[in-house]
Amino acid sequence: MPPLNDLRARAAAFEAEAHALFGQIESARSRVIQLDESYRKLGLLNLKQDELMRQALRCAEQGLYRAAHVMAWAAFMDFYEDLLASDGMVALRAARPGWTHVASMEELREYQAEFGLLELAQPLHLATKNETRALQSMLNKRNQCAHPSSFTPDLNSTLGYMSEVLHYLTLLAGKTPH
After folding, report:
1. What is the distance of C-alpha 160 from the center of its chain?
2. Ranges of each domain in the chain
3. Which residue, 117, 124, 113, 141, is CA-closest to 176?
4. pLDDT in tens, 74-86
5. Which of 7, 73, 97, 152 is the most buried (most CB within 10 A)?
């Protein structure tokens, strides 16, 4: 009989191969697991953002697709807001001189809509014009999920949305506003 470690390794290899095969089937849970593996490679989120993204993945696994959109966007916005504040909000204040009454990112969240914060991506050299539009489109999709609407995402659109969130997190990683 093979040693226990060998059996564990074989079981893990079988599981990985099964997820790779079933991940090609549209309704398979394995597709969420593949997204989870992509997410694990990211490693750039703080603990709060990590927990928000894990909640999004759990929602997707359970078929709570609207909630998955909302949680993935919450993780993204927390990351983005941290990025905007990373220089003490100096670049943000230079780009929006009228926002001087706001002393912190927490206050800014209270007074400024997310769409307005996303508009800063291009002038602060965090994203191109097209990337900024894509982020605004993602916010619109999140709003459809967070508020009463006829939008009912399925597994495909949810996985696509979450993949897009991961893409933009990676795109913004390491950038600084200026």
Report:
1. 11
2. 1-41, 47-172
3. 124
4. 999 999 999 999 9
5. 73
Phi, psi of 29, deg, nearest 5? -60, -25
Please report where in the chains the tokens 């490693």 appear, as a residue: 43
**pLDDT tens, position by position, 105-158:** 999 888 899 999 999 999 999 999 999 999 999 999 999 999 999 999 998 899
Q: How many CA atoms, within 13 angstroms, populate the side-chain half-sphere of residue 107?
A: 7
pLDDT in tens, 152-162: 999 889 989 99
What percent of the chain has pLDDT above 90? 62
Residue 131 one-letter amino acid: E
CATH code for the structural domain at 47-172: 1.20.120
State both tokens at 54: 């894990």
pLDDT given for residue 41 in this prediction: 61
Residue 142's SS3 state is: helix
Distances in Å between the Cα of 154 and the Cα atoms of 17, 26, 39, 102, 159 are 25, 10, 20, 39, 9
| Pair 112, 89: CB distance under 8 Å | no
Distance CA 50, CA 43 (A): 9
Q: List all residues 6 or more positions away from 60 whose beta carbon is below 8 Å from its beta carbon.
A: 32, 35, 68, 155, 158, 159, 162
As given in the structure block, the two tokens for residue 26 are 């549209």
Q: Model-level pTM?
A: 0.81
